[in-house]
Structures are given as C-alpha cells and as structure tokens.
Amino acid sequence: MIQKREAHELPSALKQFNELKAHFNNKIPAVFLDYDGCLTPIVQRPEMAILSDEMREALHKLASVTKVAVVSGRDRQNVAELVKLDNLYYAGSHGFDITGPGAMASEPGGAKAALPALDKADLVLQEKLKEIAGSLVERKRYAIAVHFRNVADDQVEQVRKVVDEVLSSMPELKIGHGKKIYELKPNMDWHKGKAVLWLMEELGLNNANYLPLYIGDDITDEDAFAALQEQGIGILVGEHDDKTAATYRLESVDDVLIFLNSLTDTIKAQGHG
Ligand SMILES: O=P(O)(O)OC[C@H]1O[C@H](O[C@H]2O[C@H](CO)[C@@H](O)[C@H](O)[C@H]2O)[C@H](O)[C@@H](O)[C@@H]1O
C-alpha cells in the first residue's frame, strides 16, 4: 500500500543527506528527474524555462558517474533541446516517448494510436481558446497542455469548459492536471512511474547494484514516487496541491543543484565513476 504524507512532514534531503545516503548501501543511485519546477523554476511561459549553465554542468557530471534520465511532461525533443546533453536519457510526453545514448528510441506506452485524436483536439482547442486572453495550447507529441497561468481568474472556468467539451467527444484522450495547466493525454495506462520502471529494466538497472532515485515537483511525479516507494527514493521539490508519496523533500531548484553535486561526489567516493 502506498504511503502518502504532507510535503512539510518530509525530512530534508539536504539536512538529512547522511541518513538518505545510508539507503544506498553501496548501491549506485540511478537518477530520474523532472524538468519544470525541478531543474528550472516555474515561470510564466514554457519557453522561458531555460536551464542554467550550473545545472547543466551538474547533470553532465552526474551522468558521467551514473545513469541519468529526464522524465518530463514536455515534448521529448523540446526537453532534450533545452537540456542540451547527449549523455542523458529523455522521456517526454509524460513517458510515452523515450530516447537515449546509443540511438535508443522507444514509445513503450503505445500512444501512437492516440495521434489522430491528439491532432484533432489540438486544432479544436486552438480555435476555441483563441478568444481567451492569456490561454496557451502547447502541443507535445503525445499530450496537449492547455495553460491558464496567464488567464484572468474569472476566465479559467471557461478554459476548463472548453477542455471538457473536447474530451467529451474523444474517448481516446483523458484529462491530466499540473501547475496551472489542464493536460489532454492518451487514455492509456501509462505514466511517469511506468516509464521509470521501463527504463530501469531497459538499462539493466533492476538489480542489487542500483537504487532508483526520482526528483520532481508536480502531481504527475507522484506516479513515479509511488512506483519507487518500495525500492527507491522519491524526493519532492517544493510542494503541490496534494499529499505526496515521496520520502524526502528539497525546497527549491537551487537545493536540487546542491543535492545533485553532493550526489556526484558521493558516487565518486563510493568508488564508482
Ligand atoms: O514534467 P515536467 O517536466 O515538470 O513538465 C510539466 C509541465 O511543465 C511545463 O509547464 C509548467 O512549467 C511552465 C514553465 O515554468 C509554467 O509556465 C506552467 O504553468 C507549468 O505548468 C510545460 O509547459 C508542460 O508541457 C509540462 O507538462
């Protein structure tokens, strides 16, 4: 049974770093990270979320000592272009679209069947939402984010109504939630948690040598925290509107940077890398 707690009840992954490290037990942590709100702060528009040079450097160093994957709700190509590192794995569209070093490319959730519905929904949403100031329709290969961060409070309900209308005629799609977005996703039993487990298997990490560690800030990261609760470590960055299945907490993107650098040093000190 998955244990959930309030974010503020979680121990700090920085202050309790020694305790967290004790879970490694000589295993190498394999690191899975969300992008928005974890590697970059949440900003007004998706294209403004630029990775800092310091964070890129930290990811690059970490990926030289262990496996590192970015598991994002963003389009896979978009997030790979933002991170700009070729020694990482990238899972985009909430894990439906995965690539990595050595020409690894896979779409394990079977979302291709939902492409016609996503294409149609994209057109309808663009048309119906163009009158609502501040709304933004972001098409990813296997998801559509409808952003309302910049929509007036009294218009947000109208955005939701349009999303619900579109979904009501498209059983191939379902709704997802995030920070000031509604998402339309393939109506399939696949999510970030399943993508992480798939990557573990595919990369040969499902053994006594590795410990999965997942860091994320959003409600969609809860599937990954839940999937790893028995066998790994989940770290929530900041908080979201719900309880969490993570086991540790980091306050901010700045803390994620400090944590990743400490992790690299720890893995090196373990004699790996
Ligand atoms: O799984 P993630 O990598 O965290 O992606 C989740 C969504 O992130 C982006 O939207 C969020 O960040 C934007 C920039 O900070 C912000 O403006 C927006 O309000 C947030 O919801 C991205 O645009 C979405 O496609 C992702 O699904």
UniProtKB/TrEMBL annotation:
It comes from the Bacteria. The lineage of its organism: Bacteria, Pseudomonadati, Bacteroidota, Cytophagia, Cytophagales. It catalyses: alpha,alpha-trehalose 6-phosphate + H2O = alpha,alpha-trehalose + phosphate. Gene3D superfamilies: HAD superfamily/HAD-like (3.40.50.1000), Trehalose-6-phosphate phosphatase related protein, domain 2 (3.30.70.1020). Its cofactor is Mg(2+). Belongs to the trehalose phosphatase family. GO terms for molecular function: metal ion binding; trehalose-phosphatase activity. Keywords: Hydrolase, Magnesium, Metal-binding. Removes the phosphate from trehalose 6-phosphate to produce free trehalose. It holds the Pfam family Trehalose_PPase. GO terms for biological process: trehalose biosynthetic process. The keyword Protein transport does not apply. This is Trehalose 6-phosphate phosphatase. The keyword Magnesium applies. Pathway: Glycan biosynthesis; trehalose biosynthesis. Its EC number is 3.1.3.12.
